[in-house]
Structure formats: C-alpha cells, structure tokens
Amino acid sequence: MAVPTYASPLERAWHYAYLVICGLIFFFLIAPIVVIIPLSFNAEPYFTFTDRMLEFDPDGYSMRWYDSLLTFGMQRPDAPRDLGWWADAWANAKWVNAAKNSIIIGFFSTILATALGTLAALGLSRPEMPFRRAIMAILISPMIVPLIITATGMFFFYSNPCSVLGWVGLPSNCGRLAGTYVGVILAHATLGIPFVIITVTATLVGFDQSLNRAAASLGANPRTTFFRITMPLILPGVISGALFAFVTSFDEVVAVLFIAGPDQQTIPRQMWNGIREQISPAILAVATLLVVFSIALLTTVELLRRRSERIRGVTPH
Amino acid sequence: MKRLLVLSTALTCFAVAASAQEVNVVSWGGAYEKSQVEAYNKPFTEETGITVNMIAADDPATPLKAQVEAGNVTGDVFDLAMADAIRLCDEGALMEFDPATLNPGADGSPAEEDFVDGSVTDCAVGNIVWGTAIGFDTTKFPDGAPATAADFFDVQKFPGKRGLPKSPKRTLYLALIADGVPAADVYDVLSTPEGVDRAFAKLDTIKNDVVWWEAGAQPMQLLADGEVSMTTAYNGRLFDAMVGEGKPFGVIWDAQYLEINAFVIPKDAPHPEEALKYVNFATDTQRLADQAKYIAYGPARVSSAGLVGLYQDGKTEMAPHMPTSEDAMKTAVIDDPEFWADRDAELSERFNSWLAGN
Amino acid sequence: MANALDPHAAIATVATGETDGTLRTADGKPLARALARSQTRARRRAFLLVLPLLAFIMLTFVVPIGQMLQRSFYNDGFSAHMPQLSQWFADHPRGTDPDDAAWAALAADLSAAAEARTIGIVGTRINYDVPGTRSLFTSTGRKARGGIEPPYREALLEMNDDWASPRLWSAMREASTPLTTNFYLASLDRTRNDAGEIVQVQERQRVYVMLFMRTFWLSLLITALTFILGFPIAHLLATLPMRRSNLLMILVLLPFWTSLLVRTTSWMVLLQQQGVINDILVWLGLIGNGQRLQMIYNQTGTIIAMTHILLPFMILPLYSVMRTINPSYVRAARSLGATSWTAFRRVYFPQTLPGLGAGALLVFILAVGYYITPALVGGSSGQLISNMIAMHMTDTLNWSMAAALASLLLAAVLILYWLYDRLVGIDNLKLG
Question: Domain locations in chain B?
Fold first, then answer.
C-alpha cells in the first residue's frame, strides 16, 4: 500500500503514523502467543518465568511437557523408544487421541456448517426472501444462548433424539446420539452455523446480483452460475466463515463435556481436565505445537498460491 | 459422514458386547483421578477381571443429574461431594444400599463404626476427606510465619495480598473464625442474620487485598508467582507444591475446612452389580490407605489411618500431611451438607452482591 | 433465452395487439399476474435454499433449547409429589387459612413423599422461594416415614413449628401448580411476600439486574474497542498486495488457533503485578518496585483479555468486505477534489458498513455469553450473568433458575438485535 503520488506532506505523515499504529496492534495480538513459547520449556510446573530461565540456565528449561504429551496415557511409557513405543503412543497417548478426535470432529462439523450455512446465506440475501428477519434471528440464536444451557438441552435431546417422533405417535425410541461422534459433530456444526451465516451474508451485500442474471442470460444453469460466478466472488467470506466454524469446534469444551463419551475426548477437553488441581504446562506445549503447525500450514498455502500464480502467468499485484 | 456413522455404530455395538465385564466411573480428572487409578482401579481389575473406564467431569454431580433426568444413565459409579450425594439421594436419583454389606475395618469393626462420622449414608460411601487450608510463602515472612486464621486477616502484620475462592461456602467460615468464633459454633452463628453480617463485615476488612480465584489450579500459581503471600487452597495441591515440587511454602491447619467425597451409584446404572463390587473394593481399608500414597487426602475410614505409609517418593511420611491428622483436626470446620443445601443459593446471591459492591 | 423466472425478462416483453388496456407478456398472460407468479416462485426458491438449514437448526437447537427453557416457567417438583395438598390449594382460594383438611393432606403427602424418596425434590422446590426450608421437609420426612398420627396440625408443629409460617404456606400455594413466574421474578431481584405480592428483594440480595447491566455495558465497550483496533488492521490487510497481506494474516489467525484457556493464562502471566509487563516497566525505571500496576483481577483485566480474544471476530468480517471494495471509487472521489478524510468518510467508510455490522454483531453477542475468561481474570468485578447461569447449572443444580436467566438473556439480546435493526437499519447493512 504505497502512498499515492498526489498525497500532501500531512497525509504522508499520517500514513506512517498509521503504519506504526498497525504495528502496535499486531504486537497486542501476538504478544500473548509469544510469551507461551518459552514458558512451554519451563522445567517447573508453573506459568512463571523463573530466575533460572531469565539467566538462561539450561537447568531452567526442559522438554518434559512435550514428553508428557506422548507418554501420558501410554501402556508402557518407560519402554525403549523403538517402533513399538511409537505405536503405543499413537494408539494410547491421551493427547494424541485427543488431537485425532479434534481433527475428525472439527473437519466434519465445519463441512456441514459451511455447506448448509452458505446455501442459507444465498437464500437470505435474496431480496424476495420471506420472513427474513425472523429466520435470521433463529439461525443465529445458537450463538446467543449460553453454552452450558445449550449443552444440557442438547444432551437431553441427543439422549433420545426420536422423542420428537413420539409427539406425532411414531415409535419414540431409536437409540441415542449422546456419546457418539455423530452427536458431537452435529452439536459443533450447530454452534458453528451462525458464524458462517453472518460472514457470508455480509460478503453477499457487496455482491452484484446482475452478474448472476448475466450468466443466466448467457445460458448458464444455476449450478454453473453458482460455482463459476457467485462462489469465487464470495469465497473470502465463505472461508472466514468456515474458519470461525472450525475454530469454534476446535476450542469448544462445554458441549463436549456433556455430549461426548469417553471415546470422543478432544484437545480442549484434555486441557480442562483436572483444572481443579492444576493447569498443566502441557497445555502450553500443545499451544506451541499448534502455532508451529499453523505457521507451517499457512506458509505452505501461501507458497503454493504464489507458485500457481507464476505458472498461470498472473502478475501478483 | 456415512462411514463415520457406520464406524460409530460398530463401536457402540462393540461396547455393548463387551459390557458384561466393565464399570464406568465418573470422577474429577487430573491428579485425583490418577490416584484412584493407581490405588483402586489397577488392583480391582487384577482381582476381578472387570475393566474400569474412568471418565473425567468438572463436577460429576452435573452429568449425574442430567443422565438421571434424561433417562440415559451411562455412568455406574460417581465420585461426588457429600453435599451433592445427600441432596441427590433425597431426590431419589441414587441407589440405596445397606452399609452392613461394606467390608469391615481392618480391626474387624463393622463398617458403620469404622467410617468417619457422616461419611456413610443411605446412598453414599465416603472415600476421602479433604481440606481447604491456608498456604503461605515462607520467604515473604522472614520475621515469623503466620499461624492462625486471624493472621490471614491481618495485612498490617503480615503484608501481601490474599487469595480466596469466589464462593461463600469457602470464605464465610474463615472470616468468622478469624473474628473469634469457635470452630464448633460456625454454623450456629451463620444461621442467624447477624452472624452472616458479621462474616461479611470481617471480609470487608481485607476486601481490597484479595485476589479471587475460580479454579482450584489458580491459588498455587498465584503463590508461586508471588502475586499473593497467603491463600487458601486444597490441601492435596499444597502438599504437591511443598513436597513434590520443593516450593518454600508453609501450611496453616488452623480453621481448615473439611469435606468428604463419596461414591454413589445412580438408579438404573448399566452395570449395578459391578458398580457395587467396585465401591466395596475401593472403600476397603487398604485401598483407601493406598490412595494417600499418591495424593494427600485423608482416608474416610478410621482403620485406614494407621496403614497410611510413605509418599510415592519413598521417604516422606504421609500421616502428618493428612487433613485428618490430630494436629490438623483441632480447629477444623466440618462441612455441613444440610446447611448448604438450605442456604447455598441465598448466600451465593448475597456474596455476589457483596463482591460487586465497593 | 426468455427466462420465465426473471421478473426483468417479463417487463422487457412488450404488450402488443391487445385492446383491453392490460399489459400482457409475450405468451399472452396479464403482466401483473405473471409478475406475481414469478415473484412467488422466486420467494419459494429463496426459501428452499434456507430450508435445509432451518430444519437442521430447528431439530438440533430450537427443540432442545425449548425443552430446556421450558423449565423456567414449568416446575412440577411440588405439585407432582404433593398431590393432595395441591388439590386442597386448588379448591380453596388464596387467603383461606389452612384447615384440618389441609393439615391432613400435608401430613399424608409428606409421608408418601418420604416413602418414595421424593421429599428432597419437594423441599428443593420450596427452598427456591423460601431459603432455609429444604431441611424442614427432609427432616420432617425422616420422622414421617411411618405415617403421621392425627391431630396432624399439632403433630407437625411438634416436629417443627416452622410449619405454621404464613410465608411457607404462601410459597406452597405458589408451587401447587407447575406453571410459575417465580424464577423470572427472582431473576429480576423480585420475590413474593407473605401475602403473595411482588416486592423487591432486600438490597444486599440484589444481584441479577446489576449483573445484566454490567454484562451488556462491558460487551458494548469491548465491541467498541475491537472496532477501534480492528478497523486499521483490516484496512491494512485489505489494501496491501496479496502476498504481503497473507503473511500478516498469519498474525491475526495465530491467536485464533490458540486455546481460550492458554490465552487467558498467558494474559495472567503478562499482566499480573509480578508479571512480565510490570517487570519490564520496573526494569526500565518507569515505575518503582512498590508502584506496580494492578492490571488484572479487575475490570481492566477482563476488558484487555476479552478484547484480545474477540478481536479476530471483528477483523475477519471487515477484511472480507473491504477486499470487495473497488479502490477506484476513492480515487474518483479524490480526483473530484475530495480531501483524503472526506473521501474516506463519504466514500470508503460507508462501503465497509456491512462488515462492521457483522463484526459488531459477532463480537457483542459472543461477549455477552462469555464467562470463563472473566471468571479467571476478572477478580471481584469479573462475575457476569453467564457465571450465575453456570453456577445454577452446576453448583446449586437449580436448572429452573438457570433457564429463567438464560431466557431473559436471550430475550434481551433479541430485543437489542431488533433495536439495532431499527436504528442502524439492517436493511442498509443487508445483514438479514
């Protein structure tokens, strides 16, 4: 973002001040994340910079919290670290299983929330949509009700989802969803949907409906129009909606507490486990790993994007 | 999705098929859960062949109530605070059993006599007795350490901030004792409006010096950081910091608040027989004593006290660190579940109103 | 390519050769009817797009929540387990003194409830309205297990003379029908006196109204702060070239991936009196060791931590809207003589409103419902209304009260949503 050539000196000064302000806000965003990285190597079970750490004494640092991510829950944590040990960790370590569950649940609930949410946002942003306000209010309500109420309500419902059929005289018992993956995925999708709705409808405001009509008049069927015209234009909104939905699931603990069974323990559930006694610095190790992982992921995506731009001959602007 | 559905259905079926020989225990997670796994579950599985599934909850009373009301009980044994056990028992949510069927004490005395007062009821069997005691940083008080509840309220003589939990149940008693009420009379005083006023007036004297904590993990962190010089904390956690981690902390047993945790079995538990076997096995004299090896909470049986040995480090005597030791019991306030079942909501409202005012 | 669904196509068709004066489409139908029909079709299509989600939300959210919130006005804890006394209350109007039949009904119900182990449910229900009476029921129940001998009144008063309390009888009358407004009254710091009139509770017991106000005030403040901090960042990200903005975007997304618990803990490490920021300030000599700032365990801490946690929810919607703004509008404004400030205010800013609306809505609503962070870092002023809801769900197990508080919260947010729509005009923001 260069200063335009016609800018006055005052505008230039303001421009640089603006960059400094942005820098400070970025610092505010990132400072708490930076702090946790050294603390995750703390030798003591506290969230404190000890004197030994400040003096860079190697004894003040340790890998014990990273180690505990693997060994906690293993059958034979003290065995020699050969292939069998790693297989044991992969199958039994509680944090490893929690990570697997978080990814499975996050992935499917995001897909569900984004697909249903985007579709609905398309309908909601049409001027002819009936009862728009009332429906919108219903769709975003999962965001408003305090989670603990939602989670308890869902637990009752998921304990016997077919109780609804009983109202119309059908058989009212068909197993349960509480304690299954499907139950947790449905619950998380429900919680993620308002985010998708709000961000996608906001993006669709700037969307010029005549583009769709142009496509239709040129012979495109609605599906082609959607995937070739609408989708690419609203993609940023859809992606940020999906991101919100994924993060909602990835950091959600209350619904998991009620609905998940012992097989569906997720990372946040594992983090809150035992908070009555102690917050283990292992959570800092998890957070650090996630930071490293997401930096790597986002950088890869960016590099791939640049590469494809180069190959397609699009000049980066 | 579909594959997942099939997968989860298959898993559920598998669980049902294998269910004949298992018991689901819902407990509090963390270090406490670990001590139960070591002291109860491992020997239990070894002896009976029944698998124990541990499920962690923030407070097992909430899922228990939800499961009973939804008619979808999945836990067999729940570890509850005694107050909740009594409340849920009165509401008909729990299975009743005859205390005479419990294992007798090591000295042969019948179970009803062997258990600490109030730790066996129609529906609940006590497992541990735990205390909320005052912990302090010894380095902050070189000229003489604090020793009483009154010292906790004396910020002139013992400077530094204080840590207290955000709950009337674990603060009002301390204020009253610091104000000169004998431990035995705390509930009588607290039953009168004047007594409640008196407790709040005493709390007022240190209100500006208090850091309020919410989760049990917080007080030790505050103490380790030097953010507070004294705080109340669960005694097991204090012990961990002092002995397990070698922190320079001291403990004041004066005016500790004693509570009992208990095992209960909900009505319609999926494996009632295994559950009974488990409760009976786990609250056996030796098991309760073994648990003290992993966490500094006192056994709910009198006959277990003599069997409490060394900490898992192999050199620390556990007996003096028990909240049930003679020294610690002198001025202990024992939790009164009936009182709190009656007054908890009312006092919580008053407490939060007081907390928010200036 | 005549598209029958498109109203514009219909308008484009010119009516020809008709003499009765009505406009007609090419295939001879009256234009007004064709238009109405095509609009109906368009409405149906729009509705069909929304339908799958609406059905999904209805099933997975509205029904379960409805069942839960029903508890706020429906509690049969007393009426279901004390049938005879409830019947007596139904037969005798308010103001009737309990007669022998009433005492007999009470005694019979108490013995039956004690036998059935439901006496605790009854006592808990009355204890909500008259604190301290739960033990009255359970202790009487224990003595009444084998049945109570007449005269009932004297027998019960013998066990405990609180049974004569008019307030107790008033509360039992209230509870004798399962429908009640008492939980809503309590949520607004109101109660009923002995005569059944609605009065405010004692001043030192008032807490909920104050907490509602505080919750909304703090949420508003946090929304404003996220806007002030988020707008420049979103603008920078939207105007930088893609390759640089994507790298900076990582900085916005990183805190987002990080668990709430971790970030909250991290703020404690930074802000507490012995924390990193105070240490740095002391080391720089800006403040003395004795003057360390109190930045956490009070409202400041809550505001800082919540603003940080909710900031990405403002930045991302703003960013995705700003990306779609065509920069040539601002350039056109400048070339027509507008100063940069005017061009920003009159041309650029109005185009960002949809994003701002979405971001503000997200942040505000999320802030209203948060309680873990304020509970951990907020100190004495960190209790928000959600904390009380959680307390009633998990500690006091008074789910009716929790449901009443949650219903009020939900209603208040929906009213604000409606006001927001009226004042700001959601039609302008096209949010819904």
Answer: 22-129+260-321, 130-258+332-356
The partner residue sitting opposite B344, judged by closest CB among C117, C273, C396, is C396
* CATH code reported for the domain at C208-429: 1.10.3720.10
Cβ atoms of residues B336 and B314 within 8 Å: no
Label the pairing between strands B124-137 and B162-165.
Answer: unpaired
Domain that holds residue A268: 97-280
What's the domain count of chain A?
A: 3
- Matching CATH number, B22-129+260-321, of 3.40.50.150, 3.40.190.10, 3.40.50.620, 3.30.70.330: 3.40.190.10
**Minimal Cα distance from A157: which residue of B?**
B70
Say whether both A22 and A46 belong to one domain: no
What count of other Cβ atoms lies within 10 Å of the Cβ of residue B71? 11
pTM for the complete prediction?
Answer: 0.87
Distance to chain A for B34, nearest Cα, Å? 10
The Cβ of residue B265 has, within 10 Å, a number of other Cβ atoms equal to: 25
Given CB atoms, is A223 within the 8 Å cutoff of chain C? no
Quickly count: other Cβ atoms within 10 Å of residue C306's Cβ: 27
CB neighbours of B275 closer than 8 A, spacing ≥ 6? B23, B76, B77, B265, B269
* DSSP-assigned letter for residue C198: E
User: Regarding beta strands B249-264 and B124-137, do their DSSP bridges make them parallel or antiparallel, or are they unpaired?
Assistant: antiparallel
Would you call C258 and A152 a contact, using CB atoms and an 8 Å cutoff? no
- The tokens describing C195, both together, are 């005569």
Q: Are C275 and C304 in contact (CB under 8 A)?
A: no
Contact yes or no for B352 and C388 at CB 8 A: yes
- B72, B234, B240 ranked by CB distance to A159: nearest: B72
B107: Cα within 13 Å, side-chain hemisphere: 11
**pLDDT one digit per residue (tens) for chain B, 358 residues:** 444 444 444 444 344 444 458 999 999 888 888 899 999 999 999 999 999 998 888 889 988 988 898 888 989 999 999 988 988 998 899 999 888 888 888 878 888 888 988 889 889 999 999 999 999 999 999 989 999 999 999 999 999 999 999 989 999 999 999 999 999 999 999 999 999 999 999 999 999 999 999 888 889 989 998 899 999 999 988 998 898 888 999 999 999 999 999 999 999 999 999 999 999 999 999 999 999 888 889 999 988 888 888 888 888 888 888 998 888 888 999 999 889 888 888 898 899 899 887 5
Q: Is the ipTM of this complex over 0.90?
A: no
User: What type of residue is C273?
Assistant: Q
